[in-house]
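Our consortium's second objective concerns turning raw sequence data into structural hypotheses that experimental partners can test. To show how far this objective has progressed, the report includes one record in full. It was chosen at random from the queue rather than selected for favorable results. The single chain below, 349 residues long, was entered without modification.
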Amino acid sequence: MRGVVFTGDRQIELMEFPDPTPGPDEVVVEMKASGMCGSDLHQYRRPKSGGESIGGLPVNPNPVIGGHEPCGVVAAVGSGVSEKMARVGQRVMVHHYKGCTVCEHCRSGWSQLCQEEPVLVYGNNAHGGHARYLKVPAFTLVPLHDALSFTAGAAISCGTGTAYGALRRLNISGNDTIALFGQGPVGLSATQLAAAMGARVIALDVSPERLSRAKEFGAWETVNPRSNDPVGAIKDLTHGGADFTLDTSSQPEGRISAVRSAKVWGTVCFVGERNNVTIDVSPHMLRKQLTIIGSWTFSWQGQADCARFCVDHKVDVDRLFTHQWKLEQAEEAYRLFDTQTTGKGVFLI
């Protein structure tokens, strides 16, 4: 089979790999959809001599198939895999992490938080979904509801699931206003989900196209930080500050604006990876009794809960996607995605 490999310096190769065979407690999933996520760009942009880690994860010295939003159908199961765990033909998503499997974090579905051994992230330092087949441990599978398409399942496997996980950490309700910084795939998912939860959403982005989409996805108001004072605009709209703010932009300016625009006793959540932020602690945190949290993706159960929420609330996750690609178009797909002006992309396999 052929798989998409990020070789560094914005270069991509379609490489040949043997079709995988499941070992004990493993399954092989035939990919139907493999989503493109903003964090793919860390690998795509990484210099060829880019050190020993990507986002704090050890780099595999061998070519690795990209794509950490896998969704498809179980094609084969290994020994020790019961029918309750997986069966051939079953529609599934993948919780794309594997830790030691026995620590408290792994056993509670938070494999990515494992402290006992280096975490495998499928599509990062272990083979991912941008290929015909993906071999993973059976416990990583999350059933895909019949009401959800494979593309929706791919989004829930990272971008949409990440947004859902952050919103659940914030525990927002219909009484709340939330300012969402960044309307890329994760931010737009957060807009869509928060609106479905009943919250008033203020969506912020520097792209007029993305702000227009945010409005279509349920945003109450939109703000372009390049043409407005974002903190002032949010305070005017909320009579003093938002109940919750969520930064998906990863940019220092977005993060500090998220802190400054939250109300007294408000809560700020950082989702976007990398970069730094400098906070004047006394006026912006201590004297506002502010809560700041970080939210990194979601648990196995959180992924399943997100899928159930989307079904129960009829959230049209497929609307996130503006581009569908074949694996042979990977170079063109990531060149466009790298502009960070489009919606979400997906490979249909």
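The partners drew two points from this record. The CA atoms of residues 34 and 70 lie 5 Å apart. The two ends are 11 Å apart (CA to CA). Both points have been shared with the crystallography group to help prioritize constructs.
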